[in-house]
Structures
1.
Amino acid sequence: MLKRVKSKAEEQFAAIQKKDKEALMEKEKAQQARTDKMARLKALRLAKEASDREAAEGLAD
């Protein structure tokens, strides 16, 4: 009986560990998506600013 209780507790612990690991992976995936989006938006903003500067310099000449 004691072995069965122990193995059931170990199964529950393993299930909780697996669930925690999956949650952590989901969290990391969401963080990576946010980081990628911010990097893409920054690149677009910098490209637009450079284009605007070139256009302003072209009008000034």
2.
Amino acid sequence: MKHPPIKLTIDEAAPGAFVWTLLQTDDGGSPQKVMKAAEDGYDSYEAALAAGTRAMDAELRKSAAAEQRKRALA
């Protein structure tokens, strides 16, 4: 099963406010578009990383479920 290439970034948007962003990338890893981003900042890098990782896992599960439905209908 092939998942879309996704890159998770964590930035400190303002002092003490860390945000995550999920970027869809090309096969070389260059960002192509923003898939999803944090709505609010997190108090620490670790908290933003954990939340971003959960969001990325959800996107991968959603992609896998869509692929399974597609194969079931074929």
3.
Amino acid sequence: MKRYLYPDYLMALLQYRHRNGFYPDLLKPRDLSEKVLWLKLHDRSRLHTLCADKILVRDYVAGRAGSEFLVPTLLVTYDPAEVTPDAIRQDRFVVKTNHDQGGVFICRDRETFDWDDTRAQIRKRAKTNKYYEFREPQYKDIRPGILVERFIEGEKGQDILEIKINCFHGEPRFMQAIVGRFTDRRHANYDLDWKRMPFQGRTADIEHDVPRPDALDRMLAAAARLSEPFLFCRIDFLIDASGRPWFGEITFHPAAGLVRYNPPEMERALGDMLDLSRIDESRRVQRAALDESRRLNLGHTWAHLQDVR
């Protein structure tokens, strides 16, 4: 019951202590995880909700970075009953719930895909409000829906490469390369010159260096445009077998602000990149960005981006 009854501030303290063995300093946060946790409690806007919604964020991406980064859609619906073989004709596709994390169902062969189980799992997820798990406010008011996208092929049939770009004050500062997305997940941290950085998160390190993506400069430019209204966020991309980047999602609180980087001095150095005193400035920019999204007829752009070939 504490998940529903405890105030957000108390839950943040308790969850951080449970994960790290000590309480965070939220009065004078200095480490990156402490500052991300502070943002989770104090930086809340309708733009966060829009960008956390996997359906509506497509409009934001199209308006700021360009629709060429968007994976073609096969179906957008708010009714799980519409996820059927008649509605989705492609042999391979990806079904996503728009309001939470982990609601991804990959079809590599429509003949063996369990349509009934997928609909049942979607209905179950639709009854869960992700906000109450880690008190990330951007999830609280998202209307549960379903996004079906074209399947993106990784190199040589492997899991697709992920590039996660961490942005501070609208500027990319460092990134993670993720391999083995659905199998043996591993990562490596890189700076903007694609030099490996000497720190580690909660995922095991990649044993080898990942080649610099050919489209890295395009991704960095797009990440800067998408992150511009926010003090901190992470812009995620997927790289297909041809090297083309596709937008994945915008993450505002990686690991809900509970996981620290090691060694501790890097956690502090990364925290120094984030200036919380600029919160009022960020809120003004967020309001302007939300007004811009309204002018773009939010929620309807996706209809023009469908690709049913």
